[in-house]
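Researcher: Quick one. two chains, 705 residues in total.
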Amino acid sequence: MGDMEQQVEIVIKPGMGALHYWRDLWRYRELFFFLAWRDILVRYKQTAIGIAWSVLRPLLTMIVFTVVFGKLAKLPSNGVPYPIMVFTAMLPWQFFANSLTESSNSLIDNANLLTKVYFPRLIVPAGSVIVGLVDFFISLVILFSIMAWYRFVPDVRMLLLPLFLSLAFMASFGAGLWLSALNVKYRDFRYVVPFLVQFGLYISPVGFSSTIVPEKWRMFYFLNPMVGVIDGFRWAILGDAFPVNWPGFSLSCLLVLVVFVGGLLYFRRMERSFADVV
Amino acid sequence: MSSVITVENLGKKYLLKHQTGQQPYVALRDVLSDGVKTLGSRLFGRSTLVSRSEEQEEFWALRDVSFEVKQGDRIGIIGRNGAGKSTLLKILSRITEPTTGSVRIKGRVASLLEVGTGFHPELTGRENIYLNGAILGMGRAEIKKKFDEIVDFAEIEKFLDTPVKRYSSGMYVRLAFAVAAHLEPEILVVDEVLAVGDAQFQKKCLGRMEEVSNEGRTVLFVSHSLESIKFLCTTGILLGEGKNICVGKIKEVVKKYETDILTNLALQSNKDGVIYNNYNVNTDGFELIEVAICDTNNVNLLQIKTFDSFKFKIIFNSPHKYESRSATLSIMDLSGTILLRLAMSPYSLFTMKCHKGLNEIYCVVDKIPLPAGTYLINFGISDEGGWIYDKDVCLFEVKMNDIFNCGYPPVEKHAVAVVKYYWEQNS
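Model:
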């Protein structure tokens, strides 16, 4: 025991949970890594085909979208091979959908932890988003293989990808915070989440380009934060064929920020009653 | 020595909801339909429906609890079911917030409210040691340092890389406790975890906890077993109905607890063979109505002696019709150690059908092997998932019977059980 820890005095009072919160969050960082590590380990142990599954799912979705939107509906792809265009959008979308689904159930799935041990509860949904990140990187490797197949060379803008990835991260984490907290309080919320995710897939420009949305509706379309994220990804990977509508993009960013900060505040407010309710 | 824990006027209030099936969470569906209902009645000017929120009842699980703990103290917290012991531990370990009052804690707290918290069945023993250690508040470096010690303590070297779902329940518990036992916090909060494992392992655990506190750490310990508490603790806190009744030397507090049980339950003791009655209760749930002792012809008996054969007659209320439930009648000594466990499942193959309303069941006891003395009766009903009703019911007296025809009937002071026996000698 270090002398530092001898000095620590904890005060427990009604409504005092917030006082040491951010300090605690830092102190419990190892637990955060362990929980994320557990989820990753379990995920790839449980399913017999493990990693193969995270490769197959986006690939099959891409093929279906390419056939339906590219071949049958003959939507434009601005000169880029249609599969590549779809897959660049699949990256952030799958990441968003997976982490949202995982994190919205995370508190309930870890109910036995919440009622037996103290730690900043923020760790739990955050850990689920990290698991989504692993799938993201697997998909990124697939994308590179597809690009190599089509001999498609990206330019230096590719280096900005982490920036757009953090935007996707904030969007999924923010929405995950909302849904996980709501899920504890309203237990039938879990039926809403799969619907939201499925619905989102069609109103986001995953299977098509956002440029097919009529000009006058464009700003309105950016109210879906994932439109900004996906357009950002396409711009960074595919280049000038997909110019970013900067006013719309800023609107999406702003909304991501609102969802994220709102999610944090709501989660913090609900957090102190989790153990009594879950 | 300075105090490491200061608790002042601590209180915790829960809201009990009657309508929503006693679940603390609500369904969005209900919220929406309630909203529509109130909106509808407002629009049409009908008398407003009683909204669900008005049917909440306040319940103070803890109220005005104050005490101080000095460094190195070993505190035993005792009290009957529902006295607020678990709530107190949950507040001390910061799992739930108090409603009133404050707690000041100096030093790192580790709480063990359950062994094996966060164990994942798919992960191996090795992986679970790291995971569980982190959950209990150890850093990775610390776990690495103690890893071999933990494995030694748990005696599971061979199975380190086997998923714990393949462990026997004994191995599982040993591993879980081993991790917990190697925590080195300044303050250790422990709830009932010793109620698991075989006797030898329990002794090892108690020994380890004693070691921990001899190193100058503070231990707070909740248990139903007054024996382990008396063995381990120096100071006792007695809780009753959410308040602390007394704080003091462990022996005095345990004594106070025992006499409290005696005086509370003795009032219930009754004549005519009815040892417990609760006829006036008005309930929709599971509730015990009457317990009586009677002979094989169902005629009530005034007293029972050692080695008597008799029946317990039990009448209880059931909220619904159930196809199979299991009832258990336990006979305990006054410190709460179970002496006889008369359970339908798994010991006897009997399963009980419950009717809605009153049910009458009998437990036939052949030659009760208890010496003369006063015992405590606990009655419980369980389904596949665990206890759905559990109550310390009443005292039960066994009178003296000179079964050996020697003028010395066996009494509680000398032994906990009686059998027929004889001695032989090789000449």
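Residues 94 and 155 of chain A are 24 Å apart (CA to CA).
Researcher: Thanks, that's what I needed.
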